[in-house]
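Two proteins, back to back. First:
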Amino acid sequence: MSHADRARWNKKYRGAQAPRRINARLQQFAPRWTPGRVLDLAGGMGQNALWLTEQTPQWRAIVADISDVALQSAAPALNRVLCDASALPFPAHAFDAILCTRFFDPRIIFAEWLAPGGVVFFETFTVADAKYNPTFNPAHYFDLAAIPRIFADLQILQLVETDDGQHAFVTIVAQRQKQ
């Protein structure tokens, strides 16, 4: 775990109130999914995972984040794991859904963590966002050319590119085939 990353994110979350905004596209797509175990990867305070668990008690959520400050502020109903996203402490294929918003690490291959039939909801800034945020670490921008590697062994169900004049981002919903 990078101590610099942890310190940076702890500083961001220190004194912050839990975000109330739920990802709008997650709200659109999630009702179609079969409830089960969900990982909110780099989920911060876990507002998206909490929303999902409030839809039906069959969702059992774990929020994984590098910031202990964020995790301490997450809702008590959520299970929390302090870890670096590139070194997840879970067994392979442990999740029926993965939420990953506003975060990208090129070392993560979603299929490794999804159970058969599992779904990933991924939304993050693309390389085109650099025109709006030139100081952002370019290593964490998502290049659409990485889709075949990052989503290997998954079927892309939805792929939406958005440039709203303030940010450029991609939303991808993908599913691991049932066996």
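And the second protein:
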Amino acid sequence: MVLVIGALAVTSYLTRPELAPRPPQFIEGIMTAYSLNAVETYEREGSAALDSFLQHVEREAHVRAHLFDADGKELAGREATPEEKELAARVSKTGSPASRMLGGMAIEARPESARGGGSYAFVAALPTGPPMPPGHGPPGQPRPFQRFLPPGPFNFLLGDTPAAFVARLAAVILTAGLLCYMLARYIVSPVVKLREVTRQVARGDLSARVGPALGRRRDELAAMGHDFDAMAARVETLVSAQARLLRDISHELRSPLARLSVALDLARKRAGAGAAAHLDRIEREAKRLNEMIGQLLTLSRWESNGGGMRLEAVSLSALVREVAADADFEAQGKNCSVVVSECDECETKGTPALLRSAVENVVRNAVRYTPEGSAVKISLRCRREGDDGHALIAVRDEGAGVPEESLRDIFRPFYRVDDSRTRETGGAGLGLSITERALRLHGGSVAAANVSGGGFVVELRLPVSRDSDGLH
């Protein structure tokens, strides 16, 4: 808008239409009226009244005028230029009008006689314009009185001086700028509010709505906001129904599983040695089912209530050491070990149980797939990036790894890789899903990669407190 207004104003100024030149009769009439009034005012009221009259002429018509007597004396007491005095003396001597150009002014001098017999010389400096075209006076002569413009859409911007033009243009720009700013804010306001609500939904708050912030708007942006609210409500309903179904099924499975455990104990007491192997297999499958149900309940709980979890300071170094010690004890039964190769001291804000479950699931998964006689290595490194810091927990095993096309899918619930996670050795496919969800709730992320030369590594990234030790 500033550019448009400025361009229109400057273009109007540069291409403004000129008035048709005033004919010589018009200029002659103006000069006659001024000179007669000046002489009458002087003879009737004196020099002071003449000076007041000439000042009025200068203010109203932008014509600087003087009145001289036959001896060349300026009668109003106004300072005259040598050129004006020279023309006055020539007119008094010859009794004929005279004129000359001086800068951007045309100085006109004419003789005037009073009723009492006195003779005077009236001299006026007139503003000029470009030379007159043919048919409008003597060729090449200046056009006086070109200060007057016809009505036009932007003539209100044109002042008598550049300063006036700039002041009026600035007033127009400020007014238009304020109105445009208010209009832009009104249009963009629902978009900004929609963006804020979208971020809340992306963070897991499915109850966020943009409708209350729109007020009584009835335009297309308000309609888009109401459509977004309808979509968010539908997503919230579906997610809540899914979580509720998962939770209810998990709870319902616990009861028959408990009865199965009791029946298994009774069968052991009554069966002979030949049934021991089959009963052991039933017991293993029951334990796996119980573990899967526990993981399902954990995943459902954090999916439903992750936004309302209580945060507290958690020492990541202590957590990593505890998980490594517990996993190493279990790994000994497989003739392998779990070692902490690097462990910086740092803290984060979060839920200890959820963070422990996230790290423990990754470490147990690594112990399950690392070959016998090998070691699972855990490292914790804390780094500073500007004002933010992050902790990187890396868990590496010596297993066969995962196909490249499956690296992103392993964090989805119930996803299994056939060649490395068989039904005999693999879990239910929920451990890494819980890890991914836990890291996301804490503002972190998880990634996996195959190691060149053999092995598999999972990296957990978490934000850390600013005052954490060990940041580099």
